[in-house]
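Re: the request from the purification team.
They wanted to know what the chain is likely to look like in 3D before they choose a buffer screen. I agreed to run a prediction and write the result into the notebook, where they can find it.
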Amino acid sequence: MKVLIVEDSIFVQKMMSKLISDHIPDCEIRTATNGEDGFQLYQEYEPDLITTDLLMPGLGGQDMLRLIREKDQNVKIIILSADIQKATREEVEELGISGFLNKPLTAERANTLLQMIQVARYAE
């Protein structure tokens, strides 16, 4: 399974990469630090699953999600963001996400993220 992590915090990128690779060792993981790089990597890498923050410099996660959905309605996308406004969450849910987790990534949320990835993996 190919996973793309789009996150502006290098610390969170490394933490999520380690979490996923430790629990799902056959995942191939790539990372991007903003929406522009994330969209470009999405096109080149063709991941099965994307995790993305919403609030990033440059092209944010919502705009990247819109661009991806113009090309692909099927790729699984999990939002991991501190932006918990109801309107924001409703908007990204309308764009067809597989899940939404609030930051920070606690142990409980990390387990939920792993479960979401497993569900997406077996839905392929």
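For the purification team: The CA atoms of residues 32 and 41 lie 7 Å apart.
Please add any questions underneath this entry.
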